C-alpha cells in the first residue's frame, strides 16, 4: 500500500508542477511565489523519499546535494482509503534551500478557481488569510504571509479553506492540522531550515 500511495502523491505533484509551468500569475512577483511554493517533479516512484507521516500529514525530500528540496503535504485519509487517482484538495509547504526559499505555502484544489478570485484560509479561533489564485492553485502573496500561515498551521487544530469555482459555486475544505508541526519540523531539519523550531 505504501508504494501505491507514493505513486499517487508523485502523480499528483507532477500535475501540479505542470500546471504551474503554464500558469499566468497576477504579477511577476506572484509568479515567483508560485514557483517557490510548488513541490518538485520527480523521476521515479521511489523519489521523493518519505521522511515522516503523522495523521494526515507527510514530510518528503527529493533531489540531492545543493538541490535538495523538502516539503510537507496534506494527504486526506479518504484519499488513502480509496486509492483513487483523481485530484483531491492538498496543502503543501515547501523548502528550497538552493533558492533560499523557505515555508512556501501552496493549495491545490479539486476544481478551477474563478479568474481573479481569492481563496480564504480561516483557522480555528484564529487568523484568516487571503491567497491569490490561478487555475486550480492558490498561493500566499509574500514570504511574510507564508510565515504567519505556518505559525497558525502549527498552533491550531484545523483550518477551513474556501474558494469560488469557475462556475460560481463556493467550495470549502476543512483540514485536520494534528500532526503538521511534527512533519514540518522533520522536513525543516532535513533541509536545514534556519530559524527557531515551530512551536505547538
Structure notes:
The chain is of the alpha+beta class and 200 residues long. The chain has one domain: Immunoglobulin-like, CATH 2.60.40.1880. Helices cover 30% and strands 32% of the residues. The chain is built from 5 helices and 10 strands. It has helices spanning 2-22, 28-37, 77-82, 143-155, 180-190, and strands at 49-54, 57-62, 69-74, 90-96, 101-108, 118-123, 128-134, 137-139, 158-164, 170-176. It has a 10-stranded antiparallel beta sheet, sandwiched between helices. 36% of the residues are buried.
Give the gist of this structure.
This protein has 200 residues and is an alpha+beta fold. It has a single domain (2-190), classed as Invasion associated locus B (IalB) protein (Immunoglobulin-like, Sandwich).
Question: Which keywords apply here?
Answer:
single chain, 200 residues, alpha+beta, Immunoglobulin-like, ten-stranded antiparallel beta sheet, 30% helix, globular, disordered N terminus
User: What is the third-level CATH name, the topology?
Assistant: Immunoglobulin-like
Give the termini separation: 30 Å
Give the number of DSSP strands.
10
Unreliable spans are 1-26, 41-46, 80-85
Q: What oligomeric arrangement do these chains adopt?
A: single chain
Count of separate structural domains:
1
Q: What is the CATH class designation?
A: Mainly Beta
Can you summarize the main beta sheet?
Answer: 10 strands, antiparallel
Fold blueprint:
Layout: H1 2-22, H2 28-37, E1 49-54, E2 57-62, E3 69-74, H3 77-82, E4 90-96, E5 101-108, E6 118-123, E7 128-134, E8 137-139, H4 143-155, E9 158-164, E10 170-176, H5 180-190
Antiparallel strand pairs: 1-2, 2-3, 3-4, 4-5, 5-8, 6-7, 6-9, 7-8, 9-10
Amino acid at each position: 500500500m505504501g508504494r501505491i500511495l507514493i505513486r499517487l502523491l508523485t502523480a499528483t505533484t507532477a500535475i501540479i508542477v505542470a500546471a504551474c509551468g503554464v500558469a499566468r500569475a497576477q504579477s511577476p512577483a506572484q509568479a515567483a511565489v508560485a514557483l517557490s511554493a510548488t513541490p518538485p517533479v520527480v523521476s521515479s516512484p521511489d523519489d521523493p523519499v518519505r521522511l515522516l507521516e503523522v495523521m494526515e500529514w507527510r514530510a518528503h525530500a527529493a533531489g540531492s546535494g545543493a538541490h535538495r528540496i523538502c516539503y510537507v503535504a496534506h494527504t486526506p485519509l479518504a484519499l488513502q482509503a480509496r486509492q483513487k487517482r483523481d485530484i483531491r484538495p492538498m496543502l503543501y509547504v515547501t523548502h528550497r534551500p538552493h533558492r533560499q526559499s523557505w515555508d512556501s505555502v501552496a493549495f491545490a484544489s479539486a476544481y478551477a478557481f474563478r479568474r481573479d478570485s481569492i481563496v480564504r484560509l480561516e483557522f480555528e479561533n484564529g487568523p484568516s488569510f487571503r491567497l491569490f489564485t490561478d487555475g486550480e492553485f492558490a498561493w500566499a502573496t509574500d514570504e511574510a504571509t507564508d510565515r504567519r500561515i505556518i505559525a497558525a498551521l502549527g498552533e491550531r487544530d484545523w483550518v477551513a479553506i474556501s474558494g469560488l469555482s469557475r462556475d460560481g459555486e463556493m467550495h470549502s475544505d476543512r483540514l485536520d492540522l494534528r500532526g503538521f508541526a511534527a512533519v514540518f519540523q522533520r522536513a525543516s531539519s532535513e533541509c536545514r531550515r534556519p530559524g527557531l523550531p515551530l512551536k505547538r
